[in-house]
Structure formats: structure tokens, C-alpha cells
Amino acid sequence: MKSIDLIKKGVTTWNEWRWKNTEIINLRNVNLGGINLRVANLSGADLSEGNMVGTNFNKANLTGCRIFGISAWDLKLLETSQLDLIVIGFIMMFWEIFINIYYC
């Protein structure tokens, strides 16, 4: 079953599955807009290039998530764990632009 299908079944189902499956979860380019993910354990998930518009992340665990290129506004983030978020793609994009301008 795909990760997004588990999320759509609800946070309780997701968290039960997540505690047993600790590997990096691929939610890259996924539409999570408007979904209630209150208290969800998304730690370490790859959320890159996804839609998070209007998503409820209150009390969720986003520690170590990859968040490069996400569409994110009107989020609910009350008491959300956001430690060690990874936005490295942003830095790499500018490094590639610099290399192309400087060496081309």
C-alpha cells in the first residue's frame, strides 16, 4: 500500500503503521493540501515538491523531513516538532545556477 493511501485512512492508521516502519517515507510530489495530519508522525518523510496548502500539522512530528520545493501556506503548526528540516535542494539549486553562470 502506498504511503498516501495510508495517510488518507487517518492519522491513527498512519501512526500505527509508521511506528513499525521507520525507513524514509516517500511522499515526494504528493498533494496533502487540506488534510488533517494532527499528531501524525511524519518524521524523516520526504515531502519535497508537495502541496501542503491548508494542512493541519498541529502537534505533528516533522523532525528531519525533506521540504524542498513545497507549496505551503495557511498551515496549522501549533506545537509541531520541526527540528532538523532538510531544505538542501534549495542550496543545490543555487549552486547549480552559480556553476552554470560562472563556468559557461
Structural class: mainly alpha
Give the tally of β-strands: 0
What's the story with the biggest beta sheet? none
- Structural domains: how many: 1
Strand content: under 5%
In the CATH hierarchy, the architecture is 3 Solenoid
Radius of gyration: 15 Å
Q: What letter string, H or E per element, gives the SSE order?
A: HHH
Which CATH top level class fits? Mainly Beta
The CATH fourth-level homologous superfamily: E3 ubiquitin-protein ligase SopA
CATH topology-level name: Pectate Lyase C-like
Unreliable spans: none
Average pLDDT over all residues = 85
Query: Tell me, what's the shape?
Result: globular
Description of the molecule:
By secondary structure, the chain is mainly α. The protein has a single domain (1-104), classed as 3 Solenoid (Pectate Lyase C-like). Helices cover 31% and strands 0% of the residues. It has three helices and no strands. It has helices at residues 3-8, 11-20, 88-103. The longest helix is centred in the C-terminal third of the chain and has 16 residues, at 88-103. It starts with a helix and ends with a helix. The mean pLDDT is 85.
